[in-house]
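Database export, one record per block. Field names are fixed; values are copied verbatim from the stored entry.
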Amino acid sequence: MNDDHYILWSNPDARAFCGEADGGNATLKSVVFMLDGSPSRREMEPKRPFCSRPHPEYPWAEMACHLIPTDAIPDKPVGMTVSIRAAGFDPSVREREVMLKNQAIVASDGLRTYRSQNDFYLQRPDGYFARCHDHRSKNQPWLSCTATEELSDKLAISYDFRSTAELFINQSAAVATNARAIFNSLKR
């Protein structure tokens, strides 16, 4: 334990911990899945025993075991958090309120862009939206976006992904589908 964070990828007793938590002896408020990893650990991930063979049963295994080029825009989230939500609480209500305070710029494909102080929001015609940040960097030529959705009446999922304004409508739909598939694969 470190400030209420328990890092499962580095812990050989992860299954025992999860079993203990499942038995009611530990309380989890959220679980964070770092699929792309931080730069400090990306080099060591492929050397882990898990990566010694393919895992088609896990839609995240390829990303976890192979470095993703910094200019790539994968169709999966690069990180996601599953958290417990209070009954009746909309996990994205505050962001939606901030977004709607600003005037939207509407593109020909229906994509709406709302600017705030440092970030901006992209919204598809169906209402799905994500908060995005433009790094304005040659090393990161894409937008970093975060979307939050309900998984159930008790769980919310928040996921980080890469996109561009041109790809956002289709990219965000693929990432959302893959985020749910990743979550479902981890429930086994």
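Remark 1: The chain has five helices and eight strands.
Remark 2: The mean pLDDT is 79.
End of record.
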